Structure prediction request, 333 residues.
Amino acid sequence: MNRPPEEFKRIAAKDLKTFGTACLKAAGMPNEQAEQLAGLLTNSDLRGVRSHGTRALYGYCRTIRDKKANPNPNIEVLAETDTYVYVDGDGGLGYAPTMLATEMAIVKAKEKGIAVGAACHIGHYGSAGHYVRRAMKEDCTAFSVQAAYPQYYTSNQDKRAAHYGNPPLCFGLPGEEGPPVVLDVATCILADYQRGEEIEAIEEMIPAAFFKSMGYTAIATLLGGAFVGQGSERAQEIAEQWPAARMGSLVIVMNLGLFAPVAEVRHGVDELVRLGMEQMVPLRGYDEVTLPGTPEHRNEEAYSRDGVPIAFEDVERLGKCGREFEIAPPWLD
Prediction:
């Protein structure tokens, strides 16, 4: 899914954000939240993370219009100390509440060294990397996860254990001169399209990989679900009223200079990336070794300069969204 498309149209990032903001506003989302969400979706496109970019815009617009999530939530802080903050998303999408929790946790972590932010009663929050990258901009490292209660999907009945998943999570540390190390993933090691007998045969070959995958899923689900209050009666009531808002989120932010000088830590990231590329043998079928974060870093530089390559099928999807919400795509001018 997140490989560069073979056939595409290049669209400027500013046009994607402008169009996305207008569509979300037309669907009923408040201005500030619409602009924030459109910007985050565009950022995903800039990094080449197509699965969580503007191709998701149409689905979000329909979710808001059809009131599967609260279009105008009353986002409020439920509890706060000098080291944690707990935000109620009131049935809206998860982006704004989780970013609020992240921003507040950053301030606290800068002062106290470490802080935790969480949001409850929310919908999808997109790529977990949005919140980690926000912390990285402030000389912090962070972890983020989103999940539901009691499991990520409403049912896993008769599903293969190898497919158990699939909460998004992210860890990240910034570099000094080179790319950051950012592990922005979902917990299942198999992609949604990797199904069938050939894939199932791998289960016997490397069962340990699937046991690890199942363990990641279990821990991530608990941290982003039960741990942040999604097992409460209030959470169930919200999910019944707003069916697309049965999730919670967690962000842990640490001051990058907590144990060593910030410059030293950033240099350590640079060295790790460099040595990985110089010393290791690439995976079969690949020309080089890149640690997570490097491909996205390269894409962001290139796409900011040349425009984002949007697959033709996604261009059509954006056009369909524009027609339905009566917003003309600026790239058609």
Notes: The chain has a mean pLDDT of 96.
